[in-house]
Structures are given as C-alpha cells and as structure tokens.
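Supplementary Methods. Inverse-folding protocol.

Structures were first reduced to a discrete structure-token string of length 109. This string, shown here, constituted the complete conditioning input.
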C-alpha cells in the first residue's frame, strides 16, 4: 500500500486573472489571482503553509522575486514550483530540462 501524507496531491496556482480563473474552472480550487509583488507575497504564504505538493506561478512573477527566492524556487521539490509560460512569452521548459534543473538527473538520452 503506497504511503500517503497530508502533503500529497494539493495544487495551488498564482497567476493573472484569466489563468487563475481557467484553472479554477477545471477544478483547482486553490487558484489565486496575483500579479507583481502581491502575487509573490501570495506565493510565499502558500509555500510556507506546507499544504501544497505543487505550486504553479505565472512566469511574470519571476521578475518580482529576489535572487534568494529564485534559488529557493529552482531547488524546491516539496513543493515543486513551476512557472506557467504565457502565450507569446519565452519558450516553455521541457520535462527533461525541469528534471535536470530540479533533480539533477538527465532523462531522455
């Protein structure tokens, strides 16, 4: 029987209105509208809560994070933090690149 703790399976989103509402429509209740420094504060609150296994953030929030926070986000696996690419934004990170960045493991070779 697999181990299950209170940490597994909870997902949160912090993003622009359209993105947050879209995720809420597909059933992710913890979808929050947040941009700029307000969005970063909401992320910090969610991160510190220990309630989530995955936190997805608008890629625009990266601009408002200091180096310490960006390092924390890049190294975090519990919760896993990923940035949602915006249409017309920079190229999306592949699963292989994410695995290498977060876990230090190369896959797909």
């Amino acid at each position: 029987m697999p181990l299950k703790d209170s940490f597994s399976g909870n997902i949160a989103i912090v993003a622009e209105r359209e993105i947050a509402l879209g995720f809420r429509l597909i059933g992710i209740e913890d979808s929050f509208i947040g941009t700029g420094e307000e969005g970063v504060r909401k992320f910090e609150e969610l991160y510190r809560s220990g309630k989530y296994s995955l936190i997805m953030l608008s890629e625009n929030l990266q601009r408002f994070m200091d180096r310490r926070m960006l390092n924390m986000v890049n190294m975090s696996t519990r919760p896993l933090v990923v940035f949602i690419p915006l249409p017309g934004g920079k190229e999306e990170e592949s699963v292989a690149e994410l695995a290498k960045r977060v876990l230090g493991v190369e896959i797909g070779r």
